[in-house]
Amino acid sequence: MASPVFRFRNRSQASFRLDGERTFLRYPVIGDHSEWSRLREASRAFLEPWEPRWTHDDLTRSAFKYRIQRYDADRAAGQALPLFVCLKSSGRLVGGVTLGAIRRGVAETCTLGYWMGEEHAGKGLMRDAIGALLPHVFESMRLHRIEAACIPDNTRSQRLLENVGFRREGYLNGYLKINGAWRDHLLYALIAEDWHSMRKKSSGSGG
Question: Model-level pTM?
Answer without folding.
Answer: 0.90
